[in-house]
Amino acid sequence: MATTPPDLDTARPRGGRLPRRERRAQLLESALEVFVHNGYHAAAMDDIAERAGVSKPVLYQHFPGKLELYLALLDSSCDAVIENCRIALSSTHDNKQRVGAAMEAFFDYVGSETGAFRLVFESDLTNEPAVRAHVERVTSECAAMIADVIHDDTGLPAPASRLLAVSLVGMSQVSARFWLSEAGGLDRDQAVALVSGLAWRGIRGYPLTD
Questions:
Q1: pLDDT digits (tens, 9 = 90+) for 72-89
Q2: Which of 81, 116, 188, 204 has its CA 20 to 30 A from that of 70?
Q3: What is the pLDDT averaged over residues 179-207?
Q4: Domains defined for the chain, CATH in brackets
């Protein structure tokens, strides 16, 4: 089930001029492939420029350095996780189905062929404060949305709802990453059903009333 790292042996052919927005998108796509394949520390701006089929000065016209390029990718990756969680929670008013939808959102994100989840959940640059802040934002914002649902459904005070929400987010992303790398033989639907079933059996034990 693991995603296949992109083939970095073949650079994109050099093309003509592109509008700035299109060029930026192209550079980000190439940078994502290089960062996912090599990690931050082993990736070089030369590698990214070659992968994109542009000169290094063109790359620097859009991004002043490797960290700024990485943060731009991380920002869009974090936004995607948070938006997926928001969509899942708003897709139904049935809380059992909400648990399954939220779990599915994490599994779909981790299972994406882009491998972008590695920037968010497996970054080798978490000692950098700006990177750590981006990564923590995923847990913080997803947990805040889930905590609101838990509070409304159970009547638990905000700190307790928040703790349960953070636990659910952690369960989602850790189990999804384990499934991708080690849980051979289980397809996505089976994995989602197992983990969401476990989560629901726990969270439904906190009813608003007896």
A1: 999 999 999 999 999 999
A2: 188
A3: 89
A4: 74-203 (1.10.357.10)
Q: Are 166 and 109 in contact (CB under 8 A)?
A: no
Q: Which two tokens stand for residue 190?
A: 């089976």
In angstroms, the CA 31 to CA 37 distance is 10
* String of DSSP letters for 118-156: HHHHS-S-TTSHHHHHHHHHHHHHHHHHHHHHHHHHH--
Q: How many CB atoms lie within 10 A of CB 19?
A: 8
Residue appearing with tokens 């992303």: 173
- pTM of the entire predicted model: 0.82
Residue 208 phi, psi dihedral angles, 5° rounding:
-65, -40
pLDDT tens by residue, 122-152:
988 888 999 999 999 999 999 999 999 999 9
* Cβ contacts of 165 within 8 Å, gap of 6 or more: 142, 143, 144, 145, 146, 147, 150
